[in-house]
């Protein structure tokens, strides 16, 4: 079923986006991924091989994303699937009482801007192209998958920015699905727990092991990026999933 589909993955040069681009390309979809111009996108294209095209774009830029969608329209004539994975995370307490310093506002803003505004920007500029598709037997024309996170429901120490971003993406899911429903576009979000990507490289292996043993129900390990990509595939292939957020976390519940 993927053979005639065109998929756009944001943040495709690393982590969850890269795994999704890889899985969808292997399934036969034409995949375009974007990432920051400083990323190693071209190397990822070589690694994944066939069916993959890289277009540098900053998801927070109107011009970049307009150009991205235009290039997709010119090259493929359509877009069926959008998977939003571009994003950041950081860890800072709100006020450091020892150093007597508040958390930097710029860092907080950057996470919200990239994850929330960036996701919304790509959706609003891609929806028109997806909406041009011929409807299938369910009246559906395409699907949009966003990346939230379990922080949306169970925020943890130092994670105000990520929790706010994940919460916003979760909360946007239903209104987006309603806004785009007349044109038959589904919108679903995924809330990962800890998935082993370069984003989590800063976590020492002892901490990874402690979190796995104490906070994850099962399996007692961090997730693999392809387990995220597998859920994206399930969302795409199951037309009855819409307007919801699906957790992929091994049932994680952090103690703090
Ligand atoms: N990995 C996890 O366990 C986890 C858990 C919860 C939420 N998330 C969220 O999922 C998203 C993806 O995480 P990941 O683990 O794949 O991280 P990652 O760092 O491996 O990949 C993110 C990619 O997004 C790109 N990117 C960043 N800003 C961008 C921009 N403005 N425009 C275009 N591309 C941009 C980066 O260059 C990078 O290639 C993040 O928003 C993260 O907060 C991840």
What report would you give on this structure?
- It is a single chain.
- By secondary structure, the protein is α/β, with parallel strands linked by helices.
- The protein has a single domain, classed as NAD(P)-binding Rossmann-like Domain (Rossmann fold, 3-Layer(aba) Sandwich).
- It has seven helices and nine strands.
- It has helices spanning 15-27, 41-48, 62-76, 105-130, 160-179, 205-215, 225-237, and strands at 6-10, 30-35, 52-56, 81-84, 95-96, 101-102, 142-147, 185-192, 245-248.
- It has a seven-stranded parallel beta sheet, with helices on both faces.
- α1 (15-27) packs across α7 (225-237), α3 packs parallel to α4 and α4 runs parallel beside α5 (160-179).
- The longest helix is centred in the middle third of the chain and has 26 residues, at 105-130.
- The radius of gyration is 18 Å and the shape is globular.
- The protein starts with 5 loop residues before the first strand and ends in an 8-residue tail after the last strand.
- 44% of the residues are buried.
């Amino acid at each position: 079923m993927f053979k005639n589909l065109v998929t756009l993955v944001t943040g495709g040069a690393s982590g969850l986006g890269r795994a999704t681009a890889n899985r969808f390309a292997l399934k036969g979809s034409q995949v375009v991924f974007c990432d920051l111009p400083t990323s190693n996108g071209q190397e990822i294209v070589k690694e994944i091989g066939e069916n993959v095209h890289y277009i540098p774009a900053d998801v927070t830029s109107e011009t970049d994303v307009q150009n991205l969608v235009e290039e997709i329209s010119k090259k493929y004539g359509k877009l069926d699937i959008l998977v939003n994975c571009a994003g950041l995370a950081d860890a800072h307490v709100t006020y450091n009482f020892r150093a007597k310093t508040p958390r930097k506002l710029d860092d907080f803003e950057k996470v919200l801007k990239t994850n929330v505004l960036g996701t919304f920007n790509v959706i609003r500029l891609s929806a028109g192209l997806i909406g041009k598709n011929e409807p299938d037997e369910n009246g559906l024309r395409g699907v949009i998958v966003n990346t939230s996170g379990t922080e949306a429901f169970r925020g943890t120490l130092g994670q105000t920015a990520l929790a706010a971003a994940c919460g916003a993406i979760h909360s946007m899911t239903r209104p987006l699905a309603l806004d785009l429903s007349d044109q038959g576009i589904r919108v679903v979000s995924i809330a990962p727990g800890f998935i082993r990507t370069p984003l989590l490289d800063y976590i020492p292996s002892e901490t990874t092991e402690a979190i796995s043993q104490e906070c994850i129900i099962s399996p007692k390990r961090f997730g693999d990026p392809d387990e995220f990509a597998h859920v994206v595939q399930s969302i795409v292939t199951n037309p009855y999933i819409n307007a919801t957020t699906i957790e992929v976390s091994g049932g994680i519940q952090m103690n703090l």
